[in-house]
Amino acid sequence: MPPPRRGGAVRADARHAGPSSDPAGAPVPAAATGAAASDLLLARVVREESARIVAALTASLGNLDLAEEAVADAVEEALREWRTRGIPPSPGGWLTQAARHNALDRMRRQKRYREKLALLAGAPSAGMAEIEERLPLLFGCCHPALSPDAQLALTLRAVVGLTTAQIARATLSTETAVQQRIVRAKRRIAETGIPLRIPEGAERAVRLDLVLTVVSVMYTSAHLVAGGDASADRDLADDALWLARVVADALPREAEAHGLLALLEFHRAREGARAVGGELVLLADQDRSRWDRQLVADARASLERAARLRHPGRWQLHAAIAACHADAQTSADTDWLQVLTLYDLLGARDPSPIVRLNRAVALAQVEGPEAALEEVDALASSLDGFHLWHAVRGRLLRDLGRTAEADLADSRAHELTANEAERRLLAARIAGEA
User: Fold this and answer.
1) At what angle do helices 336-349 and 353-367 cross, to 10 degrees?
2) Pick from 229, 306, 320, 220: nearest CA to 268
3) Do 289 and 277 touch, CB atoms closer than 8 A?
4) Residues 6+ apart with CB under 8 A from 308
5) Residue 209 CA: distances (Å) to CA of 37, 240, 400
6) Which among 236, 229, 241, 237 has a CA at the least distance from the CA of 276?
7) CA 20, CA 152: separation in Å to the nearest integer?
8) Is the pLDDT of residue 373 over 80?
9) Which end of the chain is more exposed for a tag (fewer CB within 10 A), N or C?
């Protein structure tokens, strides 16, 4: 079972406590008693059960909005009840039953509640954990009829359980904009009858790639904290890694699911070296002894599982590139020709400007900065508003001795990024200190 995340309404309360055990068998920090212990357990139950309950209620009622609100109310009730009356013998069952009661209460205020009431009353309450219901919900949230922004916002709300405020911070949006995206997405699902199901056949590959893209964007968003230091939003990064594991575990024959999991595990393994004292440390300068070797081993195992399925794809190629960096003892030991070859293969499947920009970084190591700069300049029309395009260009110009042009490029990158650690790094580069 995937590890618990600190989710939704209980995230702030559950993060300070550190081990006894809870009724569900998961360790609870020895210092966590009373309210702290119940909050920690609720955070775990929210992660493991909330999306499953939402999916089951939606399947019964045909109303995602109602299901999500019923579960959110149940979480709030649990936060109050468990603190005062203690943790129930079956926390997941308690939350399930509370959500079902909430759905009934809401439906009593609706005109057609009797028809739906019969459906809900007849739905089985046992055996919910036997069916991975998070996956149909995730595929529904990532339906191509929804915009990419709506897919991400709805996934973070319905599947991961974040609040509107948490989603706004993670996606660099306002709470109003996030709420509007979620409302529009739910309305679109209701109006068009978007099914909550796992697609089959050729449709699955396309839809699965959408799901994996949303999970990847979710992980990337954890590292785009406006105004923050270099440290990632650990909760959101862990949520993304957890969700990638859910998908890979539920779809063991899908190579690309294992490929994305491997990629995120490789990246998460570097986190302790990427952010040191709040400052951003680029890959070439990282102390690799700080990398999480267990996560690196997990990533290699995930990539090997994907390779055994003999169905290559872009997420596996991304992970293979990350593996090249993990294999090198130092930056100087990196097999850049292998990295460049993998980017060529990736470009054939995903010729996006971001992939081409990353390929140019590898090309600089193989053929030199002049050849790489030519590739980067060709992306100007696509990436002029992307701060990393200017930062890469600034580095190449600096390597070519074109300092004045490099300073202009780094200054533009400095203007475009909202992350303070990136701004400090770019300012130091302009000042000749990095």
Assistant:
1) 160
2) 220
3) no
4) none
5) 38, 15, 39
6) 229
7) 36
8) yes
9) N
Look at the block and give the residue holding tokens 């701060």.
387
| pLDDT tens track for 148-185 | 999 999 988 888 777 788 788 777 688 999 999 999 99
Contact 94, 75 (CB under 8 A): no
Mean pLDDT of 84-102: 84
Catalogue the long-range contacts made by 377-384 (C-beta closer than 8 Å, 24 or more residues apart).
379/353, 382/353, 383/353, 383/354, 383/357
Overall residue count recorded for the chain in this entry: 434
Please choose, from the candidates 268, 337, 336, the residue with its C-alpha nearest in 3D space to the C-alpha of residue 297: 268
| Dihedral, 411, 416, 422, 426 alpha carbons, nearest 10 | -10
Helix axes 255-269, 314-327, angle to 10 degrees: 30
Nearest alpha-carbon partner for 57 in 42, 72, 71: 71
- pTM of model > 0.85: no
The answer to whether 302 touches 248, Cβ cutoff 8 Å, is yes
- Parse the chain into domains and list their residue ranges: 1-117, 335-434
Is the CATH number of domain 335-434 1.25.40.10?
A: yes
In this prediction, residue 103 carries a pLDDT of: 78
